[in-house]
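Session log. Operator J.P. requested a structure for one protein chain; no other inputs attached. Running the standard single-chain path with token output.
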Amino acid sequence: MGFQASIIAIGAIILQFALNSLGATSVAAYTAAQKIDTLATQPMMSFGITMATYTAQNFGAEKIERIKEGVKKCVFISVTFSVIVGLINTFAGHFLTGIFVGYDQKEVIRLSQIYLTSNGLNYFLLSLLFIYRYTLQGLGQSFIPTVAGIMELLMRTFAAIMLSQPLGFLGVSMANPLAWLGACIPLISAYYISIRRIDIEYSKKKSYSYETEIDTCSYIGK
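Structure written below.
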């Protein structure tokens, strides 16, 4: 998990270089918006971290159906929350930014609103990312979450290199949503493939145990 976090951090550093080239006002707007963004996304991260423990406990107890049911319910709760908080940031972002920088900083507030809108409308991707990443880790898988981290790095690098100049501050702001989308693709795919494989393995295991029990009972009967 630490290695995955370091990969993601590299992408953030590359993005920071692109942001610095846009000037001090853009840096101030991005910093202020990130404070609000961090507060908004902490509950979604908490849902994800909870799924790591929940999944590991049920995986150890071989209760796969409980894992699947837990993922479904957590997705519903987290996505619902993400939509609500995303709308708050979209429609009240200028007011929230003013708390940090002062309402006289019109340009900072305007740019900050671009970040909060572009990210807030895509929070549902982040909520899915947290849930599926930590669920896979709870299943004992580390390779795919690492791949997802690399995808985040690549997408942020793409935004920094290809979008920051033609789109300006909007291009930098789109780095996070693109990173979330890039990470969600391998994570969600890997989860459903893994659950299906585990279901098959457990079905075979139960079938073998049942057949062994029948053979044992037949032997005792004889």
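Operator note: The two ends are 55 Å apart (CA to CA).
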